[in-house]
Specification:
This protein is mainly alpha-helical and about 350 residues long. It has three domains: about 120 residues, Tetrapyrrole methylase, N-terminal domain (Cobalt-precorrin-4 Transmethylase, domain 1, 3-Layer(aba) Sandwich), CATH 3.40.1010.10; about 80 residues, MazG-like (Helix Hairpins), CATH 1.10.287.1080; about 60 residues, no CATH class. The chain contains 13 helices and four strands. Strands 2-3-1-4 form a four-stranded parallel β-sheet, sandwiched between helices. The relative contact order is 0.07.
Length: about 350
């Protein structure tokens, strides 16, 4: 907007009502036109509605609703002038907000020499929980299309990263590092979105992130009849019973071993088999075979029966062993330092 756009606007003076400026913000994660009722009221009752962005996604919907919008960008002084005598101006904020305008208004108010209109920030649409996931999907779309590395990746090529990220997530959980946990959850989520984006391009059986989300939503609802249905559950054991029953109905498995990934770490595999056996109430004797593997199998089954994750227990023991190794190395370095210059008794100095 240039200065002539506001020619004829009344001057601000003590005997005039200062009016009202409404800064209307919207979320790009909510479909255009879906505005709050207070926002529609402000738009319909405003004396003028302004927007500096001619391509703002809300403009077609506002005009369709019969609200005239001027594509103008006044200065703070011009906006204060046009609000004089009780006028209300609604400014539809751009995606970056209106920092120049709000800074200018703050500067004017700070002078104490200008009678300022009433200022209101009115959110017209709000992000729902999970809304930032839409940003992730959009960013992934662009990376897949424009990044030379990402555009060439396949499910097979990314598989190793999924395993690495899962282990790093477990490490963050066991270390109790909240910042690291948040970051690793993001890395795992990236793997899901990346694979779903690749899957969209499959010519024979494509699916999208929405299909992935729809599948898990349906599964969760079906396996929680005590939450979404008529059944009841008051203990974790009853919840697990519901889960296993509905899962068995879905999968129609003939063996408790079906669905157990055999390529997972050995202790975890043994514990999972033991868990299935115990849950099913089966009496399965251990193989009568000697060897370290069968000893580890027996230990894993014992750990599962005692409610201990054998993989986590072994990792904890391994970390303690790592600390002992470092302590031994540290003592060795101190010993080397103490004997420096005296010569190595095992290997006489050769001289230079």
């Amino acid at each position: 907007m240039n200065a002539t756009s506001f020619e004829g606007a009344p001057d601000t003076s003590p005997d005039l009502t200062p009016g009202r400026i409404v800064l209307l913000t919207t979320s790009h994660r909510v479909a255009p036109g879906l505005l709050s009722w207070p926002a529609w009221q402000a738009l319909r009752t405003a004396d003028r509605v302004l927007c500096a962005d001619a391509a703002h996604p809300q403009l077609p919907y506002l005009r369709e609703a019969g609200i005239p919008v001027a594509e103008e960008s006044p200065t703070a002084e011009e906006l204060v002038d046009v609000c004089a005598d009780g006028h209300t101006v609604v400014v539809v904020a751009t995606g970056e907000g209106e920092p120049a305008l709000t800074d200018g208004l703050a500067r004017l108010a700070g002078t104490g020499r200008v009678r300022m209109p009433e200022l209101e920030l009115l959110p017209a649409s709000y992000d729902l929980p999970g809304a930032r996931l839409l940003d992730l999907v959009q960013v992934m779309d662009r990376i897949r299309a424009e990044c030379p590395w990402s555009s060439r990746q396949t499910h097979q090529g990314l598989a190793k990263y999924g395993i690495e990220e899962a282990y790093e997530l477990v490490e963050a959980i066991e270390d109790g590092d909240r910042d690291e946990l948040r970051e690793e959850l993001g890395d795992v989520l990236l793997q899901v979105v990346f694979h779903a984006r690749i899957a969209e391009e499959n010519p024979d059986a494509p699916f999208s992130i929405d299909d992935v989300a729809a599948g898990i939503v349906a599964k969760l609802i079906h396996r929680h009849p005590h939450v979404f249905g008529d059944e009841t559950a008051s203990t974790p054991e009853e919840v697990k019973e519901h889960w296993l029953r509905t899962k068995a109905q879905e999968k129609r498995r003939t063996s408790v071993t079906e669905g157990i990934p055999l390529h997972q770490p050995g202790l975890a595999l043994a514990a999972k088999l033991a868990s299935r056996v115990r849950t099913a109430g089966l009496e399965v004797p251990l193989p009568k075979t000697e060897g370290v593997g069968y000893e580890l199998l027996a230990l894993a089954i014992r750990a599962e029966a005692e409610g201990v994750d054998p993989e986590a227990a072994l990792r904890a023991a391994a970390r303690a062993y790592r600390d002992a190794i470092r302590e031994t190395e540290s003592r060795g370095q101190r010993t080397d330092s103490d004997t420096a210059g005296t010569g190595d008794r095992r290997h006489p100095p050769t001289g230079d």
